[in-house]
Design brief:
- This protein is α/β, with parallel strands linked by helices.
- The protein has 2 domains: about 240 residues, 3-Layer(aba) Sandwich (Aldehyde Dehydrogenase, Chain A, domain 1); about 180 residues, Aldehyde Dehydrogenase, Chain A, domain 2, CATH 3.40.309.
- A 7-stranded mixed sheet has the order 14-17-18-13-12-20-21, sandwiched between helices.
- Strand 17, helix 12 and strand 18 form a beta-alpha-beta unit.
- Helix 4 runs parallel beside helix 5.
- It starts with about 20 loop residues before the first strand and ends in a 14-residue tail after the last strand.
- The structure holds nicotinamide-adenine-dinucleotide.
- The site of nicotinamide-adenine-dinucleotide has 30 residues, from helix 7 and helix 8.
Length: about 500
């Protein structure tokens, strides 16, 4: 792999042509069969082209699958602790390159540097965790019902795994998928998000530099229907791990079922933070700003609804809005900036459309609502942090995933009412409660219908060793993170060893 990761930005007028990135198949850099490329733009300044990437099609996916299939025969036999050593070494390399990769990520997707450093750190954390799994991958032994017979269950790799990833966590999400897959002995083909292919390359670069054999991970870049769908349809692919929108997830789940693939779907959210009268309001305001406007609201776990008890409702809104007005929007490479741009024009238009919907539905726009496109903002997809208050829980802005810096605040009478509002959406990813009352906290942990509940913290902040995923339209029952990921990327084999030297029939022979 090439080591000069970045081309020079073209905005100073002195740059050469942007670097062309090729697909990574069987350890080689190869052009796509279509002969076409697409541009990866900086959303804070679209004159800055991060690189040209291959616009791949079915033939490229087929070649990548073939390479992964071949590599699987050797990789599955490499002892798991040896596989883990490569992952551990990759973690060390990522640590060394953390700043470089974080800057590249901010440039390709816009979120502020402290967050892209967190994204790379998440891949590092995941690598250390999964390296440890190489010496665990535990399975149970259990007594047999027959004498002189040994029973156990061992984990086996699934085989060839396909990954399809979104753009909002460009290195963390690929790491959640690739690392548990390879430590379990699988080989992979990843189709990264078209807006953020560079960070997938950087992650795989670290693994290759750490000694990953050819063909174990293959990258195909391009768009969903052309490069993603053939991976889901391919009969040799035994598992698909997808993170993205619920609409695309539904298609992928339906297609994957045709060939009985393992299929893990991590999808949208409409996460609510509840603030009760007894909450530490300073803390709740701080958390609510971070949850709603971190990553420009483009997190599946973003705090997109805030449900506030009547006693502190007005005070919360006034103070929250004052703080939201002061957030500095701009290029994420500037350390003083709080919030970067939307990922692309389509997302910005969708955000603005939801703001119009909110106004037409009668919600009170307290701050924001406008595109920023003058002066320093003119070449990017910037939007003001936007706060709606007095939102009815049935309004579309309170029900649909916006995926932008738009938050809907609504009142509630008590905890029970708040939980009912929080649960009354199609999604079930993250949830949060601010209170000092431990009884209320534990009732909420029991009753919030979501895969994640935070107490006295906003809806964002997952750690790699805990289960990650959601209920209802957010997921299909799998979890990423920690051992859940190993569950998905391995299959159980039950093993019986009979050392009695005679035929023993289970259920039929019943020894005294
Ligand atoms: P998206 O669904 O548009 O795209 C995700 C990936 O799927 C991309 O790589 C895309 O190219 C690919 N794709 C699109 N159509 C396809 C098709 N027909 N066949 C195969 N692949 C196809 O989502 P996005 O805009 O990249 O990301 C935003 C969405 O992701 C939001 O809904 C967000 O909530 C969700 N998300 C969920 C989680 C989670 O863990 N639950 C995490 C991050 C993001």
């Amino acid at each position: 792999m090439a080591t000069d990761t970045y081309t020079k930005p073209i905005i100073d007028g002195t740059a050469t042509r942007p670097k062309v990135y090729k697909n990574f198949i069987d350890g080689e850099w190869v052009e796509s069969s279509t002969g076409q490329t697409f541009e990866n733009h900086n959303p804070a300044d679209t004159r800055d082209v991060v690189g040209l990437f291959q616009k791949s099609g079915k033939a490229d996916v087929d070649a990548a699958v073939q390479a992964a299939k071949q590599a699987y025969q050797k990789w599955r036999l490499v002892p798991a602790p040896r596989r883990a050593e490569i992952i551990y070494a990759a973690a060390e390399i990522l640590l060394e390159r953390k700043e470089e990769y974080s800057r590249g990520m901010t440039r390709e997707m816009g979120k502020v540097l402290k967050e892209t450093r967190g994204d790379v750190q998440e891949a590092i954390d995941c690598a250390y965790y999964m390296a440890g799994e190489g010496r665990r991958l535990f399975g149970p032994t259990t007594p047999s019902e027959l004498p002189n017979k040994f029973a156990m269950a061992v984990r086996q790799p699934v085989g060839l795994c396909g990954m399809i990833t979104p753009w909002n966590f460009p290195m963390a999400i690929p790491s959640w998928k690739l690392l548990p897959a390879i430590v379990s002995g699988n080989t992979c083909v990843i189709k990264s998000a078209q807006d953020t292919p560079l960070s997938t390359f950087n992650l795989v670069q670290a693994l290759v530099d750490a000694g990953l054999p050819k063909g174990v991970i293959n990258i195909v870049t391009g768009f969903g229907p052309e490069a993603g769908a053939p991976l889901v349809e391919h009969t040799d692919v035994r598992a698909i791990s997808f993170t993205g929108s619920s609409a695309v997830g539904r298609t992928i789940g339906t297609t994957a079922a045709q060939t009985f693939k393992h299929c893990s779907l991590e999808m949208g959210g409409k996460n609510a933070m509840i603030v009760l009268d007894d909450a530490n309001l300073d803390l709740a305001i701080e958390g609510g700003l971070w949850g709603a406007f971190g990553t420009t609201g483009q997190r599946c776990t973003a705090t997109s609804r805030i449900i506030v008890q009547e006693g502190v409702y007005r005070e919360f809104i006034n103070r929250y809005v004052e703080r939201a007005k002061k957030l500095k929007v701009g290029n994420g490479l500037d350390e003083s900036v709080d919030m970067g741009p939307a990922i692309n024009e389509l997302q910005l238009k969708s955000d603005l459309n939801y703001i119009e919907i909110g106004k037409n539905e009668g919600a009170k726009l307290k701050t924001g609502g406008n595109r920023l496109d003058k002066g320093e903002y003119q070449y990017g997809w910037f939007l003001e942090p936007t706060v709606f208050a007095d939102v009815d829980p049935k309004m579309r802005i309170a029900q649909e995933e916006i995926f932008g810096p738009v938050v809907a605040i609504m009142p509630c009478e008590n905890l029970e009412h708040a939980i009912q509002i929080s649960n009354d959406v199609q999604y079930g990813l993250s949830s949060s409660l601010y209170t000092k009352d431990v009884n209320k906290a534990f009732s909420a942990i029991r009753d919030l219908d979501a895969g994640i509940t935070y107490i006295n913290a906003p809806t964002i902040g997952a750690e790699v060793h805990l289960p990650f995923g959601g209920t209802k339209a957010t997921g299909n029952g799998h979890r990423e993170g920690g051992v859940g990921a190993i569950e998905f990327f391995s299959e159980w084999k039950a093993v019986y060893v009979d050392y009695s030297d005679r035929l023993q029939r289970a259920q039929i022979d019943r020894p005294e």
